[in-house]
Specification:
- By secondary structure, this protein is α/β, with parallel strands linked by helices.
- It has a single domain, classed as Rossmann fold (3-Layer(aba) Sandwich).
- Helix content is about 50%, strand content about 10%.
- Helix 3 packs antiparallel against helix 6 and helix 5 packs across helix 6.
- The longest helix is centred in the C-terminal third of the chain and has 13 residues.
- It is globular.
Amino acid sequence: MRYLLDTNVLLFSWLESKALSARARAIIEASEQELYYSQASLWEISLKHSTGKLPLPEAPRDYLPACIARMSLERAAMTDEIIYRSAELVAHHKDPFDRILIASAQVMSIPIISSDQFLNAYDIEVVW
């Protein structure tokens, strides 16, 4: 099964947070799953780190690629279709990073693992 990981889930996984749900942790740790990250998540994490809102053990340029490699994550490319669809979504959720993730899950036809309950307002499967 394929899953897209929300930014918060990436951070919970990488920083070994207890905030991950048991279901999310089981899916992420199962070796047969194909797990994807969005470039929008890297952008969001890097921006938050640069403003001091998100401390990381290393600079994002060094830390994020190592975390991605360690989890064997696949990149969910931010295609033109995903960008257009993110702008066309009903405005239940205004965060542009989350809108990219929602559109990515729709275009790729895969569930997203997220603790963000606002995502349930869209036509995607949210796993938590």
